[in-house]
């Protein structure tokens, strides 16, 4: 059994249904722990590995990222899995999936896996927050 937090992308695109339902609005209605459904879309014209994400109300809220979809889609075919809504932060939604049986557990606020706005962290606007060490970009 293992669990993963996965990003949900494309939340600002309208759905293709008759009402052009709003993915972001649907995400805003989700509560952490709500069940979500992952559906493989092998006939998707843009990506045969696409995995769509639907709320418990049956409204599409986006897709798993193209980098994760092939692996997750393959595992979905081979293993029992359950997924729940985890968080909405800015332009990304997050879901938690558990393979191998049982319900996924949500990380506690403050855990490294919890998206930043849901962490119980404090922000000091007067403090200095340097960028992490990285390559030199000088001209």
UniProtKB/TrEMBL annotation:
Stretches assigned to the HIRAN domain: 31-78
Protein's recorded name: HIRAN domain-containing protein
One GO MF term: hydrolase activity, acting on acid anhydrides, in phosphorus-containing anhydrides
Transmembrane segments annotated in the record for this chain: none
Domain of life the protein comes from: Bacteria
Chain intervals for the UniProt region annotation (Disordered): 103-139
Keyword Metal-binding: yes
rRNA-binding as UniProt keyword: no
């Amino acid at each position: 059994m293992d669990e993963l937090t996965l990003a949900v992308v494309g939340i600002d695109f309208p759905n293709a249904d008759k009402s052009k339902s709003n993915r972001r609005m649907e995400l805003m209605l989700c509560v952490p722990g709500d069940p979500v459904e992952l559906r493989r879309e092998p006939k998707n014209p843009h990506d045969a590995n696409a995995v769509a994400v639907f709320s418990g109300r049956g409204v599409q809220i986006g897709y798993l990222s193209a980098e994760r979809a092939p692996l997750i889609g393959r595992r979905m075919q081979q293993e029992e899995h359950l997924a729940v809504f985890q968080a909405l932060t800015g332009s990304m939604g997050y879901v938690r999936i558990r393979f191998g049986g049982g319900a996924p557990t949500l990380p506690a606020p403050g855990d490294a896996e919890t998206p930043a706005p849901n962490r119980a962290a404090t922000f000091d606007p007067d403090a200095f927050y340097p960028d992490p060490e990285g390559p030199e970009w000088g001209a």
